[in-house]
Write a structure and sequence with these properties.
The chain is an alpha/beta fold. It is 37% helix and 21% strand. The protein has eight helices and ten strands. Strand 6, helix 6 and strand 7 form a beta-alpha-beta unit.
């Protein structure tokens, strides 16, 4: 029952955030808008957005929403900032990161209480702490995604830089497959990606990002 209530609350938050942005434009029978996902829209993290569309919530709110896929949270923020989309997905940190580059962007809703992405490593990789990632291959979604920026911050907390590890931008499928094969020994990713790796018989250790710095959950920007 609690999960059902939480899902309803999340759906209301999503539709409300989308509707408030639409209200800033001219009134019409159905306000057209584009929403950019930072990764393929079949990923579980985006299920509430797709569910809201399937249930007709956007239509009920007077919205004609088109979903498109960007190249990571930072890229989504850039596209929204230059007017190629009205809204997009990222992490609460995303707007903070890209505003430093002069982009007129801000978060309008944070969909959770803690970090969406974490640091994971294979238990057979000889890694016991972040410092042990030195010289290892680490997967991220893309170099325009918050998984990359969060990884850089995590490495910096133990005195490492991007030059101390082999960071590979491999996309949502590759980040799972390469962890399973052992071609990467660690990743900056989501809990469902780690679940897919574990389902393939590979044990992984999680280091919560919030144990390192106060990162945020998935967000609408």
């Amino acid at each position: 029952r609690t999960k059902r209530v939480n899902m309803k609350k999340l759906l209301r938050t999503i539709v409300t955030a989308v509707s408030l942005v639409a209200m800033a434009g001219a009134a019409s029978a159905a306000e057209k808008m584009t929403y950019l996902f930072p990764a393929p829209d079949f990923l579980p993290a985006f299920a509430p957005f797709k569910l809201a569309m399937a249930k007709g919530y956007y239509t009920d709110a007077g919205l004609d929403v088109t979903f498109q896929v960007g190249k990571g949270g930072a890229d989504v923020a850039k596209q929204v900032g230059v007017g190629n989309a009205e809204l997009g997905g990222g992490i609460g940190d995303t707007a903070i990161i890209v505003r430093a580059n002069g982009l007129p962007i801000r978060g309008v809703a944070v969909l959770g209480a803690k970090a969406l992405t974490q640091i994971y490593w294979r238990k057979d990789a000889g890694v016991n702490s972040l410092a042990d990632l030195k010289g290892k291959s680490v997967g991220v979604l893309s170099f325009q995604d918050t998984t990359y920026y969060n990884l850089l911050a995590a490495l910096a907390s133990v005195g490492l830089t991007k030059n101390d590890v082999d960071i590979q931008a491999v996309g949502p499928a590759g980040i799972i497959q390469l962890m399973i094969s052992g071609d990467t020994q660690a990743m900056s990713g989501t809990v469902e990606w780690a679940g897919a790796v574990r389902a393939a018989g590979v044990d992984v250790q999680m280091l919560p990002i919030n144990d390192i710095f106060p990162a945020m959950a998935q967000a609408i920007i």
